[in-house]
Amino acid sequence: MSLAARRISTALSKNTRKRITELKAYPTIETWMNPVTRGLARRLANHEWEKCLSEIDFEYRMNDVEIAGRPCVTYETAGDRRDDLFLFYVHGGAFVSGSPRVNASMILPAVRNTGAQCLGASYSLLPDGRFPTPLEEVDRVYKAALKEHQGKRIVAFGDSIGGGILLASLMRWRDEGVQLPDRVVLASPAVDGVGASDTHRTIDGHDPHLRTHQGRSVQKLFQYYAPGEDLHNPLISPIYGYFSGLPPMLIHVGSREVLLGDAARLAEAARRAGINSTLRVFDGMFHLFHMHWSLSEAKTAHEDIAEFIRSV
What we know:
38% of the residues lie in helices and 18% in strands. By secondary structure, it is of the alpha/beta class.
């Protein structure tokens, strides 16, 4: 039995234990920053996420649309539809990879389980998408979507760095008096560019996908995203922001993730600000495990998300 296999809990399903031993680590931050290797790293990361689409066992369709000058995606699945419910999705990818189409396996189950209409927003990736460009692009898409979906219940959904961009955007919209979503779902959110969470030190190396080397890689990534900026700026690291007035939040994270600390701190900061926040920690699960639809743990997580969305 391999060392990796011995470190996986027997409480997990057999398929999940096997999947953890098979998953590949994301490219290093140095690989992303090097213009010679960046393109290859992006293709490799995108390929791994696109493979997750093959696990989707229900009918779906993605349509490319342009919203506010940005290439976006709408999602449709078979089954009942709710014309009164709209999902706004911001994808992950560490500022350097991913797209609404590449990361579709994250959001498609929510569309299928709720019947909601859904739009996936895009933003420029690094090195073109340096702060505050992604915030400005997501802002334009969201405001355009508000006009198109007036009168509907709105739920915003962000994963990984998309969760950080979404949370920073929520703070910005609140301060501007823009209509906020009724609910927010954050899966494995990355919300601290300083890399201060304790889990960057205590469980680094246990996630098959994501290593942060005691938080140092997080700092390098955010410095690449926002060179010369104070990483405590809430529009860069929203964990340091003011939470009052934000919508109810559902936060998902796996117990193997170095971002477990970010999720815990976020839920507590929201609670202290009087926000209805719910933190779900999934034992033994890894970064963005929701994208692996064939795993029973992913299905359980998505049903929890759907219940939260339907409750709006």
